[in-house]
Every structure is written in C-alpha cells, then in structure tokens.
Amino acid sequence: MAARVRIPLGVPDGVASPLRRLPVFERSDQVQRVVYDSSLRDVVTANCASFCRVTHMLGELRHAAVACVVAPAADTSAGFVITRRSPRTPSHPGQWALPGGRVHQGESIEAAARRELAEEVGLVLGPEHVLGYLDDYPTRSGHLISPVVLWAGEHPAFAPDPREVSELLVESFATLGGDDVPRLMSIAESDRPVIQLPLRSTFVHAPTAAVLFQFFEVAIAGRTTRVTQFEEPVFAWR
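RESULT FIELD:
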C-alpha cells in the first residue's frame, strides 16, 4: 500500500471556526454511516452558513461553477455525486469530476451549478436546494472554480448525458472520512503537496479532489479546512 501522509490543516489567522459537528460523525479508522435525512440537511445548511468562504479575484481566469451534491447513497446513507467524463469530451477526457462548467456572463454561480447539473446528469434542482458555498479554487489550467453545495431531494432522478458523462456514482461520504484521507504526494515541479482521494479502485486528483475534500470537511464534518494549499498533478495543468 502506498504511504499516506497528512499535513496540518489549520484555520488561517483571524478566521473563526464556529461550525457545528454532525452528531453521528467522528473521524476515526471506522467512520460511522452518515444518514441521509432532514436532520442532515439542517446540519449541512448550518455548517455552510457558518463557513467563512474565501473568494478569489477572477482576473484572466475563466470562471466555472461545480455542483457539490449531497444525495442518498446505498442503505439510506448520504453520499456525493461524482462523474467520469466521457472520452469524447475535449477537456480532461475520462477523468473523475464534479458536475459543472462555465459561468455565463450575468449568471450567478448557483444558477450555473444548477444548470450544469441539469445538463450533465439530468438532475433539475431549484434555488431552494442550494445549501451554501465553498472556497474559490484557482486551477493551473486557468479556471476559477466556485463550488456550490446542493441538496438532491428525496428521490433524485439522474439521466447522464452520454456526450459528457460515461459514468455516474453516488459515493458514500465514508469514503472521505478515514484517517488516511487525504493522500498527499510530492512532485518535483511544485513545493505544494498534490492531493488525491480514494474512489473505488482508483484515486481522484485535484482540482476535484481538493473541492471534494473541503466539501466533506466543511459541510459534513463541520470543520473549517482550506484547500488552496493543495497542488494538482502535472497532467491537470493543461
């Protein structure tokens, strides 16, 4: 097994951390199941409302929004929606990603995230499903990612567009709750650690891995955790 390394994920000076901890969750070697119900929605909403989101100047970056969706996984547990890009997509084909895409001129990030969610995976959610926002994440490829946290509803129906999505998973949050998460690696091209997250028999890389990790830490675990210190693998820089 590859070695796992953790680095301190402290709160920046002057940033409070008043988030609530989900009563059924504690980080441990054996993570307890997070139940998908109305009480979880209340906690995620409160955690997101208490989170001090960090924004980034757009500048020459291209603005994109991604949907961080809390959805029912197997056995009534809560999970997150993640897709594998179609091999026909022009940008990073075959890689794991969150539903999302370009923010159109005059469009809010929440509207863009909901639109992209509907276009990519067929899940149509109204504004009332928006629970909060995470930190902006500037990428090496010239994008500024703004994550939006959404609630999938009681019986979400997915219809992935095969032109954009080759596979869709609703993965349990337990995947992100172990003591060996995140997996950090050093590369010669950067002094920042590259972040990876386990997914089935493979790994998800940044920027998706960074956003997912903060999604779990803030919305589910109730911890203020910043992720812009995490690097992307070199293949994602293009």
